[in-house]
Amino acid sequence: MSTYRRFAAAWLLCVGFSSIVANAHDLPLDRTMNGFVKIEPHQAEFVIRVPLDLLLGVPFPLAGDRYNVAASGPAVATALKFLASTLRLWEDDVRLEPSAVAGRLVPLSDRSFGDYDQAVAGVDQPLAPDTVIGFQMGYLDTHFSFPISSPNSVFSIESSLGAELGDYVQLAVRFIPLDGPSRAMLLNGASGRVALDPPWYQASAGFVRLGIEHILSGVDHLLFLLCLIIPFRRVRGLIPVITAFTLGHSITLIGTAYGLAPAGRWFPPFVETLIALSIFYMALENIVGASLRRRWIIAGLFGLVHGFGFADTLSEQLQFAGSNLLISLLSFNIGIEIGQLAVLCAFVPALALLFRGAMSGRMGIIVVSAIVAHTAWHWMLDRADILWKTPWPQPTGAGLMTLAQWITALALTIGVAMLLAKWVERKWPGHVLPAESGIDTSRS
Amino acid sequence: MRARQLAFVGGAVLGLLAICGWHTGVWADNNQQPAFQVDPDWPKPLPAPVGNDGIAHPWVQGEVAGSCVDMHDNVYTFNRGWEVGATVNGTLQGNESGAINGNDATASAIPSPPIVAFDRDGNTVAGWGNPALYPATQVDGGYASYLPHGAHGCYVDYQGYIWVGGNGDGIVQKYNPSVAAQMGAAATFVTQIGTKGTCDTTAPPASGANPFTSCNETNDANTSHTLLNEPPDIAVDPLADPVTHTPGSVYIADGYGNHRVVVYTTADGGKTYQYNRQWGTTCMIGGVATNSQACPAGTFGATGGGHPHCVVLGNDGNVYVCDRPNSRIQVFDRSCGAPSTTATPQPLCAPKKIINIGLNAGQTPLTGSVVVGNNAFQNADEAIPGAQEAILASLTTRACDIDFWPNDDYLATRSPTSQKIIVDVDLGNDNTWLIDRATSMVFGALGVCGILPCPGHNAGHFAFGHTTAVDSQGDIYVAETITGRRVQKFVPVQNGNQNGHQNGNQNGNQQ
Q: Exposed/middle/buried for A383, CB within 10 Å: 0-12, 13-18, 19+?
């Protein structure tokens, strides 16, 4: 919404104080276009309903405060040309040109866009002669037919209608392939060209890139990684720690994508607060010189928390996965790992350089960790403040039962894991490597 | 060590699978009632335009009397901050309850426009009135000369027009909310029912400190086909009228001075409206005008304001009417009163159902009427001794306004879902009850206090909760007037049929 705020602020500054109350709305009241793209053997059908709020430049004829529907033909034709240039459909890398177009004005009360068949039938029907459409209180329903070379091509869509309003104007489109289930997407001007049914390799590449971008732009995740590795001097010692962190965040990331995370407004600030806490805790461990023997366990547990944070970013993007949900999830995870490795490749030698001379020994660890702890402390307070102001779910019987089950299951999980770990240690003592293997413990 | 790690991870995966299984099972429980929590970040701060003095002047809504939702899930509020009175910041403001004053009158605050609309994210997307309709010399910003005095309810009809009513000077009005920027402010006005300042009453309009007419609550004409008294609420039927067979009939709660529901129909697609029928009159027991849950069916409480106070069309084809002085909802057939053509029509129409929101102590509800809430309020008594008595002691206000949940369609009239819950604003107890229609039980409340009175100004508390509206995504909005002066949003956090916003329409409306 930052775009909206900039737009609104600019608008307010422009119109000035005195005229505020004399004007009507500053943004379109209806900002969502609804559409269907249906792939037939030889053509792609694209029906879309555009709010008249978004077509202010088209001179639809008026009769008083209502549209003169009978005389609207030329204006509808103008609007169709405009829409054909701003709503673009592609087959592979070839932009499609419509072979047939149709359109009509309809009132806000028209309900024909509930499904594709009704929408198509509606566009082709004339309006009842007594239909009343108040000024700016209707839609333009349109139907474009595009010849295609193959129904198995990769189709993509791009909208620049209302691009000046950034992400405020949205296009809700349902893609109906020739075979297979239909799927809905919500696009805006910032979405660019989006594949409606990407092949697995295309989806995978996109999500790998997204994962890399996310980890590299996530300062809190980077600081947590930094805290994890500060005491280590050898890459070999980092392997179990990073592996545990990766497994932890993979579990919650995938679980969340399949709808298993708690709902409710409290959860995102809860996770954000825990992430800040995880950084602060790890920094404190470094400062006090806690044993690194069990750091992989802590890394794994905090990895669960960070996975929820990754999932929050991913949730809005999964609609672009097409039918490749699992592949996209794994690709996102791979992207995260690539980003992590890149960060480690930068951090480890950088720390090695930093921890020379006056910063060698524990002094360097303490100084760097203290700086990180200070930052994390403020994040933690800020995020906890937001969390504190967010009401928790009202205590209902079912809710309390759910909470009890989560706590029980978590306790069981930890207990089972601990028992298994001890049993394995006893059973195969020779196979268990000391935790500090590969780690320079003399300074920790 | 690696084996140990693998064992640990294996245990963790097993445990999480167990969690997921439980989790899914619990959330798939269709008998679970929904729960809601307040969204403390909604709405975002209102605009603060910089004036010619170089100072930012934040909008203040004042009393938020009405709340309604359009088909795009924008939320409209009908506010009283503009109503006239004292001079604040160089602009004449109100000195009555409807104006901004006291804490609202900060160094630079100004009244917001009468109508302010927000989107679901809490952005202010519209703020308008219609100064073009008032004389330039009018000192109050001009709104009072044409808007309903005593700004009250609002409603967005199936064509997208917004209706407003006021419990002051006898009018309801219809506006085009989209038109002003392109056609000028005056074009927002479409039509009105009633004549401003001329009331359906046999007593002279009240005046005094209030510079505008008030239709006088104590009178009970109920006679005019063209005039109203103090109409607080409106609903428009998108379906064919049972009498005229034409859609677009307007149902008006013509309360306060009058005690009737009056229906106007249209033959020209909503340009003009004609009186068609009405029903309801003052409750009389033993020849005395009375407030009581024993009031005869089809009558409304005598005094105390808001009789009737709301009119809502359900998807069952019935008309739900708030009999606020009697803390009950009466459910009528749409054809009630049809057609009234006599000079002094006061037809009583037997309601299909009467829903008492809790049973007043010492009063006997009508035979066959439904009492909701007493069991729940009894539970409240167990939590805090005396709580039930406290709730029921608020005799006259437990049915202030209602809406249905969920409303997949913003028009309750044709929402395809079961509308399994009645959302009932209880002004006197500062809470909003959630009533299961099937079991007639109050099973929850929107307030953070649970099923208890919940006064206050923090998020999730209420002060004079007044009207409510439900959007297509399951969010509930409650407007607070008099001392509350805000609108709050409550979002579903768990329920059987609608989990958060996930099952709603992706774009917030059904077309």
A: buried
Chain B nearest-CA distance from A143, in A, is 16
How far apart, in whole angstroms, are the C-alpha atoms of residue B328 and residue B398?
Answer: 7
Tell me the pLDDT tens digit for each residue of B316-366: 889 999 999 999 999 999 999 887 656 655 578 999 999 999 888 888 888
Contact (CB<8Å) A26/B125: yes
Q: Are residues A188 and A146 in the same domain?
A: yes
Q: Is A386 in CB contact (< 8 Å) with chain B?
A: no
| Full-model pTM | 0.77
Is the domain of A168 the same as that of A208? no
Predicted-complex ipTM score:
0.73
Give CA–CA dist A183/A173, Å, rounded: 8
State the sign of the Cα–Cα–Cα–Cα dihedral A259, A264, A269, A275. negative
Distance CA A155, CA B406 (A): 36
Nearest to B400 by CA among B343, B479, B341: B479
A189 and A210 within one domain: no
A158-207 pLDDT, tens per residue? 998 887 777 788 899 999 999 888 888 888 877 888 999 888 888 899 89
Give the bridge partners for B234, in sequence order. Answer: B252
- End-to-end alpha-carbon separation of chain A, Å? 46
Both A291 and A170 in one domain: the answer is no
Residues A388 and A361 in one domain: yes
Residues spanned by the domain of A53: 29-197
Q: How far is CA A57 from CA A52, A136, A359, in A?
A: 10, 12, 66
> Which CATH superfamily does the domain covering B33-494 fall into?
TolB, C-terminal domain (2.120.10.30)
Domain boundary among A140, A172, A197: A197
Phi-psi category of residue B497: left, alpha or beta, with phi > 0 → left and psi -120 to 50 → alpha: alpha
Q: Please indicate if any CB of chain B lies within 8 Å of the CB of A136.
A: yes
Asked if the structure places residue A23 within a domain, the reply is no
